[in-house]
C-alpha cells in the first residue's frame, strides 16, 4: 500500500533495504548502486567486490533514473501484502545495470520490450506500519511528436 495522505518528506524516510535508495538535494529519490573504478562495471545493489575484475574498492554512486524494459511477467499469486495481479520487470538502466522492480501505470498488453521507463521512488508502509522508501518503474514521459 502506497502512503498518500500526510506523506513525510522523502528525506525523512529510511529505505526499505538500507543503502539502496537516497534522496538528493532536489528532494527526488534515486537508486544507489556500486561502480567499479577498475573496469567501470555498475551493480545494484552495491557490492563490496567487483565480479568482473575482483577490485575491492567499489564506489557508491547514484544510478540513472531511466532505462529500457528488458523483460517482464505478470504475477497472479503472491504474498498477502501484495495486491495481485501486478507486473514485475527487469529494466536496463542507462548506466548499464539491470534492476528488477514492479511496473506501474501501464497495462501488460501495452508493454513493449525496449520501452522507456523511469524510476519512481516513494514512501510505502513497511511491515511494522512505518513508512519506508520503495521504488517502482513507470513509463517515461515522451515529448510531443515522439512515438
Pick out its properties.
globular, disordered C terminus, mainly beta, 147 residues, disordered N terminus, 0% helix
Provide an overview of this structure:
This protein is mainly beta and 147 residues long. It has one domain. Helix content is 0%, strand content 41%. The chain contains no helices and 9 strands. The strands form 2 sheets. The chain has a 5-stranded antiparallel β-sheet, with no helix packed on it. Strands 1, 2, 3 and 4 form a 4-stranded antiparallel β-sheet that branches. Strand 8 and strand 9 form a beta hairpin.
Instruction: Compute the separation of the termini in Å.
Output: 33 Å
Low-pLDDT runs? 1-7, 143-147
Secondary structure category: mainly beta
Tell me the count of domains. Answer: 1
Largest sheet: 5 strands, antiparallel
- Helicity, as a percent range: under 10%
Report strand %: 35-45%
Give a count of the beta strands, DSSP E runs of length 2 or more: 9
Number of helical segments? 0
Instruction: Tell me the series of helices and strands, N- to C-terminal.
Output: EEEEEEEEE
The shape, in one word, is globular
What radius of gyration results from the CA coordinates? 16 Å
The pLDDT mean sits at 87
Strand order, main sheet: write it out: 7-6-5-8-9
